[in-house]
C-alpha cells in the first residue's frame, strides 16, 4: 500500500502537537508589540513631526519631506532594535492576496556598510511589477507601478521584515489595488455623513466607517492536503463522495475545540495579537473541521488590512502545525462553505455610532436618518453590491441554501420593521407649532435591540442592533471590494438626501419636518428590499422576482453591474473609480473567473485520466481475473455474478467519465477561442463547468465501488475527521 493517500494517513497518525509559547500570560502586555503604532511613533519622533503626521492621517494633508525622513529613521531604529534587516512596501493587488518585495536596509559605502532607510524609500517605491492583474490599464511597455505609503495603517514587523502598508497605482495614476478605491470611498462617506450629521450636531467633524470581520475557515492535515492535487491546485476538492457522517448530527458547532486545532489557534492568535489584530472570538463552525475567528471591530481601512494580514498569518502558522488552512468558499461539496461576515457601521469623531438607536426622540431621528439612507442605498444599488461579492468560488455558496442567496435583501427584525411601517403610514404634523406633536411621529425604538434578540441567519444584509452585517462575502475575498461599494453607495445616498432635505428647508419647512418627510419617502421607495422571512426558501425566490429584485446566480452576469450607465454615474459622482478603472476591474474579475475554471477543468481532466480511471481499471482487472478463475474451476456463473456486476458498473462509469472528460476538453478549446472576456466567462460557465457535476457524480460512484486500498485520493471522511 504505497499510494500517497496511505503515506499521508500514516503521517497524520504520528503527529505530535507542537508546544505553543505565548510571550506572556496577559495579552495586554504583548498586544501590538510588533506594530509601529502611534504610541511608539510619539516616543521616536519630534512633537512637531508627530502632530504633522496625525494631521495627514486625519485630514489627508500631504506629508512633508522632513516628516517622512524623521518617521523613516524612527521606524528603522525601532525595527532594528527588534532584529529587523529588511523593509517592504506591503500592498493588495487585484490578485486578492497581499504582495511584498523586500529590500535590505543595508547599503555598502566606500569604507564599509551602513543601514539606511530614507523618507523617500518609506513614501514611495516602484516595484518591478508588470505581472499583476491590471485589466489592460498598464501595458507591459510602460510597466511602472508605484506603491505609496498609507500612514493611516501602521507599519508592522513580520519576522526580519518591516512592512509598510501602501497603495498601488499605475504610472498614469490609476488604482491597481483594493486600497485606493476603498480610501476614496471612505473619504466620500466621511464628507457626506458629516454634512448630514450637522443637521443634528455641529460639533461632528469626522465620520469613520467601522468594520468587524468574522472569518470562517477549514483545517485539514497538511499531508492529506498534499495528497490531493485538486486541493493544492484549486483550493477545493473536485471529487469526493460525502462521508457517511458529516454535519447531520450538528455536533461540531460550538463543540469543544480539538487539541491540535486549539494549539494552532493559540499560536496564530498570538502572532496576530503581536501584530495588533484584536482577535477576540474563536469557535467551531457548523461543518466538520470548520472554524471561525473574529476580532473586535476597528476603523475600516485597518480592519481590512488586518484581515488580509490575518489570512497570511494563519496560512504560515498552520505549516508549523502540519495543517493547511482552507479559505476557499466551498472546499467540500455537501457540507457548509465558508464566508466572511462584514459587520459595518459609521462612527463619529465624537464617538457616536450612527447606527445605534438613541434614547431620545432627537437621537432617534438621527439614527433613523442613517438607517433609512443605508437601506435606500442598498435598495438602489443592490446589483452593484451583488457584483462586489461575486467570484467563481462564492458562486458555490450563494443560492445553495446554506449561505445568503444571490438575491440581495435586508433583514431588520420585527421591531424596526414596525417602526418603519409606522413612519410610512403616519402623517407628519407640518403645521404644528408644538415640538412634542412632531415627535409623536417618531416611534420609540426599544433598547433591547442591542442584544440582537431576533436574528435571521439567512439574510445577506442584516441589521444586528447597532450595525449591519453583510453576510454574503466569501471567506477568501478581500473585504475592500464589497466595503468600497457599500461605503460609496451610502455616501452617494447621503449626498442626495442632503440635497432633498435642504430643498424642503429652503421652501420654508422646519428642519425636522423636512428630515422626516424625506426619511418617510425613502422608507416607501425602498420597501421591496426588506425581507424578514427565510432567505434560503424557494418561495423567497418567487416573491423576490415579483418584487423586481434580481437574483443573479453566476459571476460573469453579476459583474455586469460594474459597468452599467447607472454605476458609471455613481462612480463619477463619488469619484471612486474612473470609467477606465471600472472597466479594467471588470476585465480583471472576468479573467480571474474563467482562468480559475480553466484550471479546475484541467485538473479534473488530469486526475480522471491519470489517477481515477487507472485505479478503477486495476480493481476491475482483479475482478476479471477472479471471475475467470472461478469459471476455470467450472463453477456456475451465479458464483461470480457479483464480480460481473461490479465489472460492468465500473466499465459504465469509466466510459462515461472518459467520454465526458474528452468532451470537456473540446468545450474548453472552443471557449478558449473566444476573445471577449465576458463571453468567454459565460462559455466557461455554461459549456465547461457544466461537465463538472456529471463527471464528479460518476467518479464518486467509483469511489464507492473500488477497493479502498487502491483508491488514490484521501476520502472525505479522512479529510474532514482525521486530525
Ligand atoms: P456573531 O457571530 O453573532 O455575528 P461575533 O461576535 O462573532 O458575532 O462578531 C460580531 C462582530 O461585529 C465582531 O467583530 C464585533 O467587533 C463587530 N461589531 C460590533 N459592533 C460593531 C460596530 N459598531 N461596527 C462594526 N462592527 C461591530
Ligand atoms: Mg458568526
TrEMBL record:
Alphabetical list of InterPro entries matching this protein: Gln-synt_C (IPR040577), Gln_synt_N (IPR008147), Gln_synth/guanido_kin_cat_dom (IPR014746), Gln_synth_cat_dom (IPR008146), Gln_synth_gly_rich_site (IPR027303), GS_Type-3 (IPR052725), GSIII_N (IPR022147)
Similarity comment text for this entry: Belongs to the glutamine synthetase family.
Domain of life of the source: Bacteria
Gene Ontology MF term list: glutamine synthetase activity
GO biological process: glutamine biosynthetic process
Domain GS beta-grasp stretches: 85-173
Protein's name in the database: Glutamine synthetase type III
Gene3D superfamilies hit by this protein: 1.20.120.1560, Glutamine synthetase/guanido kinase, catalytic domain
GS catalytic domain mapped to chain residues: 178-612
